[in-house]
Structures are given as structure tokens and as C-alpha cells.
Description:
Elements: H1 2-10, H2 35-52, E1 58-62, H3 64-69, H4 72-75, E2 80-84, H5 90-103
Parallel strand pairs: 1-2
Amino acid sequence: MLDRDRFLSSKGYSILLIDLQAHGESEDERIPLGLKECESVKAAVRFLQRTKNGVPIGLIGSSLGGASALLEDISAEIRFLILEAVFRILEALFEIVWSKEFLNS
């Protein structure tokens, strides 16, 4: 993801990288199954709206980060989305995580 961010930055885009809880370099091991990730993405969008004064916002997200970017209450404010390996319906993700974490133990 960093290579893509460097490329976009070289083309004049401002970049804000967030590391969701229990993903990437984050130290927390508890996966909140989409609840806190959605709030983190919303908070990042609100931060950009406050600090960038009307500059168009785009989101790039993989897996749960991408699913969090599909939130209906922020999607109208986003100029573009680049999504990879995304669960469109978070319930499908919950079923997979639940079965791996709890049913196969």
C-alpha cells in the first residue's frame, strides 16, 4: 500500500494513512469485527473535512478497511473509492471470522 501512496503523493495528492485496530502495524490483537474500523474511517474522513477545507477526498481500502469505506453515511462525501478484496456485506465477514475464531477452536 505504501508504494501506491507514494505514487499518489508524487502526483500532488495529500495522503492520510490510518492503521486500523488489529491490522497492519497496529499492536492491538483484538479484532472488533468491523465496529471500530468503521468508526476509525469515519473519524479520518471528518478530520480531512475539517483540515482540508473542501478538498476532494478519496479512500483506498483493502478487506475490512475497504468495507468500512463503503459506509452509507460517508459515501456521499467521497470523490472516489479504490477497494480491494472487500466484503460488500459485513455480515458475510462476521460469519467467516466467527466460524474461524469460535467454531473451529
